[in-house]
Amino acid sequence: MKTVRFIHTSDLHLDTSFSASGFPSRIGDRKREAIRSVLRRIIDDARSYNVDLLLIAGDLFELERITPDTFEFLRQQFDSIRDIRIFISSGNHDPCVQGSPYKEETWPANVHIFGAEEFQFVELPDLGVRVTGFGFAHARLDEHHFRRLPVLSNDFFNIVLSHGSDVGRVPEGKSKHGPFSIDEIAGKNVYYCALGHYHQQHRLSNAIDDAQIWYSGIPEGRGWDEEGACGYLLGEMDGGSVRVESQFCSQYDLNTIVVNCDAFSTREQILDAILEQRGIRFNSKTILRVQLVGALDPRLELSLPEIEERLAGEALYIRWEDQTHSALDFDSISREKTLRGRFVRLLNDRIADTPEEERAVLERARLYGVQALSGREVRLR
Ligand SMILES: [Mn+2]
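Above: query sequence and manganese (II) ion SMILES. Below: predicted holo structure tokens.
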């Protein structure tokens, strides 16, 4: 068998909306364009690594939102690597239904779409490879479809391509489309199984046989549960083995930083704590979520717009989540025989009578009131 190289990717979600992520629209626009750049990068890499196969395991685009421009972009990109065979399995966001570009459009000759809810195969005798794929034809699939994967003939090296949900490890909040367990894939002469749907890149543990079963992961993170650098998988198989390596290709990485403010009395200390975080590349493509926690020294002026200005070259966008509480001792202030003391007593009583989840507004009011009554400038945040 000649050495066969492949790229495995999935879940690009071209034309996705970022409104649910809470980003301002300009960041959503950047991210959406970044997904297109990432696809181009994958196509360029397929060419430069001289791969034989490009495997796309579903959710290539969002059916509800894909524009003619995006289809045309895909067509041009795929057509630009005519010597590389491209296999696509439709997923729950790009099901192969009436109105889908998978059905309505003409794709380049090197593209094969698995869009039927049954396992079908394509044999590539020149490579000694059989690609067996399953596509979603509905936006929802509750069936354990891998139970219908037959034991494959071992005259070729078998690659299996599908969208699906490993029931052994369901990420929090993830829908279980196309559920499966490992024993429904293993033991069927599968050499490499290319999966999509879960957005974290990982290999599934398989105690049954040597089949390598992988999620390639999302190549450009979309939400806060898809942080850090993201990428695709580059694989090489020859007679004895499959070797897979991760290639990073993401452009605008998401990172969460938790800063405990307990020991701080100036905002420089917050700034320094952010920039000292290891493993984060601070540059104009970085998207940050900064969670401020702990007790905030009353001397510290938490002016987020000013801190943000000082981080202008280090991040494209910062989402602040201020979960600090004031280090002011409201109990001792409440014992003062002053207007300030009376104000805090009133607010303390109101806070005590208010359910926990509704207290934040009153706690802010108490803090701003004490600042005002102490003759300080009050800056709302
Ligand atoms: Mn999916």
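The pocket of manganese (II) ion is lined by residues 58-59, 91-93, 163, 177, 197 (CB under 6 Å).
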